[in-house]
Amino acid sequence: MEKIKVAPNVYWVGAVDWNLKTFHGNTYNLQHGTTYNSYLIIDEKITLIDGVQTNFSAQWIERISEIIDPAKIDYVIVNHVEPDHSGSIPEIMKLAKNAKIFGTAKCKDGLLKYYYPNPVWDFQIVKSGDKLEIGSKTLQFIDAAMIHWPDSMFTYIPQDRLLIPNDAFGQHLASSGRFDDEVDQCTLMDEAEKYYANILVPFSMLIARKIDELIKLGLKINTIAPAHGIIWRKNPKAIVEKYVLWSKNFPYKKSAVIVYETMWGSSEKMAKAILEGIIAAGGDAKLYDIAKVDRTEVIKEIFASKLFFFGSSTHDNNILPAMAGFLDFIKGMKIKNRIGMAFGSFGWSGESVKQVEEIMIEGGIEIAHPLLQIKYAPSTDEIKKCFDAGFELAKKYLQ
Fold it and tell me: Which among 63, 153, 334, 373 counts the fewest CB atoms within 10 Å?
């Protein structure tokens, strides 16, 4: 295997998962696979930072072995206990029997609960500001709790101006290249935006504070090496600037998103009439039947956009199931500074549209127009009301 150098005596020893299609259970659909990035430092103390998914342990150990005997590893840094990064740690500890593990207190708790090591590993708890001298290099630890798990931390190497922030600044992108200057830039930024929208939005306030903290610490950064996807070496400033923008949790596109689920086509007719109204007003919009599209892509558009129209038919006194799941995800995103409207159709009971509106409010979306609800199929007048709602809100909020 090729030895991939990230900085002097710092090597990428991770794994590329070309075929992974879903992540975080089935909440995140992947178009381009992912990587599990791990970094090996050759110094007076041989140091390994982060691991890989369990099923890539053999490949990971093979990469490490081509550089150094794994038994010689002195320190293992665990920035994050989630199994896609720590699942391989038990395997390396079988080989590096004298290695000491470093991580946060919550990281220690998580590792012991996940893996029940016997004998118990030698673990040293670290916190923000702690430093570890490993020879010519120094490791500086920065607590990053809830970005995006309670145990998360960053590791910084000042001599190389290298930040290793685990799940921050990453993307799900399998590629033959490991660095930002080796991949298509549009695909790279699209996947970075999708990653933030689908995983990190609820932690935006914490991310904004953490970026401010990094600035106040005066860290000089030439390279950002996340735990998923591409390493930023040519222009790390680009992804930091995006995180500054995204962490404001404010819409950055003057656009609308219409998301619906329909049973017999009536709610779909309403959705399309709303779309026509937006277009007639000169607004930009995207239309999604949530039962037929990739929810991960929809979430990315939701995060970027200002104006939402969410609709559902009523089934058994409730929202249709795909739309219900989507709205539950929206509620968990904790988005702010967005506005919207609920719509939908019913046959005899008609609870769903009010339920949609209530979830929108609970999720932090301001209701900008009274809900629209029709019985059976929409009449010409009812279609016009949908058109007018799209036109009115586009004129008011998308200009």
Answer: 334
